[in-house]
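Figure-free illustration: sequence to structure, shown twice.
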Amino acid sequence: MNIAIIGATGNVGSRLVQEALARGHHVTAIARHASGLEARPHLDTLDLDLADSARLADALRGKDAVISSVRFASTPLAAVLGPVKQAAVRRLLVVGGAGSLEVAPGAALVDTPAFPAEYKPEALAGRDWLNALRTEKDLDWTFLSPSALFVPGERTGTFRLGGDTLLTAADGRSWISMEDFAVAMLDEAAQPAHSRRRFTVGY
């Protein structure tokens, strides 16, 4: 596949690049300082600010899929969605957050008293992205939410998938490594199973 990854130098984005290249995909890594990534076969880099929508659209043309790994609170959905549509890319996959996942019917994690205040603006913006995508009629999108604890770790390839409800392990913890999150995302890119839906991944 020919995949563009927006936000390719971040903690999650860099792991998505690694996983995609390991699978033999051609990757265009897009970020403000993407050229700082280590040169590798099948990897193109593009230093770009998302405010340059015309240049972003040009970079996305001909891609089989676009994966967005950007901060919601500082990035309007239109900054990604517009160029993707302009480039006529069929699929958009979004690195989501856990805050919008339900912990009880009708109750999202972000709305619980224990949710950390410092993460709330990003979580609320992520929920806004998801709600806007759910009204999207022209694009095949997927929104992948991690578990509550989303940390660097190991690539095990063993995890569970869920829908709109926060996953918890037998010990009560809700977590996923960034490496296994990347596995789940690239699985979805290669074999779509959650078209126009959100899903989640956890142990």
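We now fold a second protein in the same way, so the two outputs can be compared directly.
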Amino acid sequence: MKYIAFYKKAFKSMTFYRSTTVIRLLSSVLMYLIQYSLWSALIRTGNHTDVSLNEMISYVIINLFVNMLTDTNIASQLEPSIRDGSVVMDFIRPINFRLYLFSSSLGINTYNMLTSALPIVIVIFIFHDLSFPSPFYTLMFVLSLLIGVLIIFELTYIFGLLAFFTQRAWYLRWYLDGFKTIFGGTVVPLWFYPDILKRMSMLLPFRYVSFEPVNFFLQRTPIDESWRVLFIGAGWIVILRLISTLIYNRIISRITINGG
């Protein structure tokens, strides 16, 4: 299948940037050490007795793993071809534009996850003697991770399509990263959020990208709430898909009207 070929091509292309891979791995190690030092100091003060140090280590390290797999940057990927007009060629090719971008971004993210996150996860789990979730929560983790990958793709796809109207993409990525960090619990778990910020986060799709998968891994989501979380996440995929389709159709209509 051609989309598998796009996935493999994107994955293979990343192997040529070995220095970037090393830098990304070192950055991941540094980020883990910073968060480990911060959370271990806070927990030792006794202010968060309901959260153990091992639990926070698991949160940080699994969050790193998930973020590497969901770190998609379609807006910046599209910007050069939008500005020089070559993106039109992608529209007339006999491929699904959405699936093409999804396959390529997934290939890149898989490579980054395997080289910059998985080695750290394995080492940390060995030296800190961390435990894996039960079979049920492992299944929930995998399913929620798939949902998170699709949600972040649709979000980045929407922001990428908006670059057709703005001609610039860097600040769109900046906004999306900001929303994801604040409302997605990627740095600070939503458990520690003040009520008003936590309620806002619950109404938005960002928490389903990494917070909910990590919450399942830590077995913090009640069993009777698990399927509801997955269904809501799947609902967000449908909503975002509809929005992105409307924007895409608008772009195609605009190109056709202008004689593109």
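Summary for the second example: The mean pLDDT is 85.
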